[in-house]
Amino acid sequence: MGTSKLLVRAKAKGTLPDLNDNIGKDWGNNGDNLFRRGGLTKTGKIQGGFAGASAFDLGNSVSPVTLQQAQFPIGVECNCINHLSLSIPSLRGFFSYKSETDTVSLTWPSGANDNATAATRRTADLINGANGGTITDPPGIDSQFTFHPLGGAVLGKACDLFGRVKGYTRLYVVDGALIPGATGCSNPSLTIAAIAERCIDRIIEEDL
Ligand SMILES: Cc1cc2nc3c(=O)[nH]c(=O)nc-3n(C[C@H](O)[C@H](O)[C@H](O)COP(=O)(O)OP(=O)(O)OC[C@H]3O[C@@H](n4cnc5c(N)ncnc54)[C@H](O)[C@@H]3O)c2cc1C
């Protein structure tokens, strides 16, 4: 987010005027959704969190989904499990600069994550159908958040395929801003690290 904000402001204020029009675009929330399955069989034990586990529903007919159990030891039995799901949002957002307030803000289109939410609901229904439980409402499935902001200076558009910012020499992006909106139903940090290493290897070889 910081990278995108810096570059969008620099382009708008003319300190880096040769940045191209893809700066600040192709942002996404990694298809994140957070929800809770409740009404589960009482275990008779105080809930202290559970082992991390992922369910992969890559054949989901709406969109592929990875469903994770989000450890959240609350110290009381709630007969529930919190889940984080990761999918692929169908739309992308963009950053823009407002001169009146000298701020950069994100526009995330309404409905951008609807397909990820629908896919998550389908996977949750499948698991509930097999094991019991319901999606508790509230909060229901909430997609108005993300742990995983991605995009804003993406590979092949705002930057070349090695993070070199187009329009300038020796200006590089080597973080999650390079990735257009999703890392294919996975947590992004290892993908970000791998792409950063790939970029830096090439930059050291060719630019320095
Ligand atoms: C609660 C939470 C849980 C998560 N769990 C996981 C997980 O289990 N697995 C996983 O893969 N990912 C997880 N993530 C996501 C992961 O942390 C991020 O995808 C990853 O850290 C992003 O890496 P990055 O290098 O792009 O940016 P960051 O790690 O966010 O680094 C950006 C850096 O830039 C700095 N910065 C920002 N603005 C400026 C500025 N103007 N000037 C100078 N510096 C600036 C920031 O201080 C920061 O140090 C989680 C995220 C959250 C919030």
Describe this structure in words.
The radius of gyration is 20 Å and the shape is elongated. With 208 residues, the protein is an alpha+beta fold. It has one domain (2-206). Helix content is 23%, strand content 16%. A hairpin with a 7-residue loop joins strand 2 (54-57) and strand 3 (65-69). The strands form 2 sheets. A 5-stranded antiparallel sheet has the order 2-3-4-1-7, with helices on one face. It contains 3 helices and 7 strands. Residues 2, 6, 147-148, 175-176, 187-190, 192 line the site of flavin-adenine dinucleotide.
Instruction: Output the number of helix runs.
Output: 3
Global structural class: alpha+beta
Bound compounds? flavin-adenine dinucleotide
Helix content: 10-25%
Order of helices and strands: HEEEEEEHEH
Q: In which order are the strands of the major sheet placed?
A: 2-3-4-1-7
Low-confidence stretches: none
Count all strands and give the number.
7
Radius of gyration: 20 Å
Question: Shape, please?
Answer: elongated
> How many domains?
1
Strand fraction equals: 15-25%
- Report the average pLDDT across residues: 90
- Distance linking N and C termini: 27 Å
Major beta sheet summary: 5 strands, antiparallel
Task: Throw out a few tags for this protein.
five-stranded antiparallel beta sheet; 23% helix; alpha+beta; 208 residues; two-stranded antiparallel ribbon; 7 strands; binds flavin-adenine dinucleotide
